[in-house]
Design goal:
single chain; about 130 residues; mainly alpha; 434 Repressor (Amino-terminal Domain); 2 domains; elongated
Length: about 130
């Protein structure tokens, strides 16, 4: 029996899952080697997962969620519904990290009016109309 070469095309789902794994691993300052040890995988597995070149099964997702201390649903956050005619556009990891830093700072602001002013400024900069509540 001969093996057929695997397609080099990365699925949008695998790509998204890989980015979420990489993001969480980086947040924890965990090396790929440390994560591989924690989930009992061979060297290079995490790199393949993070690049979206290797699909994950349910057991692997569950094991990763335990090792990265997140619920399984974490890996699917920000993912729109997939179908054969729709591609998934997920922000790059650096944008997600930037947004998380912004939110951390934003929620440290005790004054609700100041937070509202900052939100209004951001909406104005983005070209959105201010919503009247």
């Amino acid at each position: 029996m001969t093996k057929t070469p695997q397609s080099q095309e990365v699925s949008p789902l695998d790509s998204h899952l890989g980015r979420r794994i990489a993001l969480r691993r980086q947040q924890l300052n965990m090396s790929a080697a440390d994560l591989e040890k924690a989930i009992s995988m061979v060297p290079g597995s995490v790199a393949r997962f993070e690049a979206g070149r290797q699909s994950l099964n349910a057991t692997q997702l569950f094991t990763l969620s335990r090792a990265l201390d997140v619920p399984v649903l974490y890996f699917f956050e920000g993912l729109s519904t997939l179908n054969n005619n729709t591609s998934v556009e997920v922000p790059a990891a650096e944008y997600i990290t930037e947004a998380e830093r912004f939110l951390d700072a934003y929620f440290k602001i005790a004054d609700a009016k100041v937070r509202g002013d900052i939100l209004g400024l951001m909406k104005a900069a983005a070209g959105e109309q201010e919503e009247n509540a």
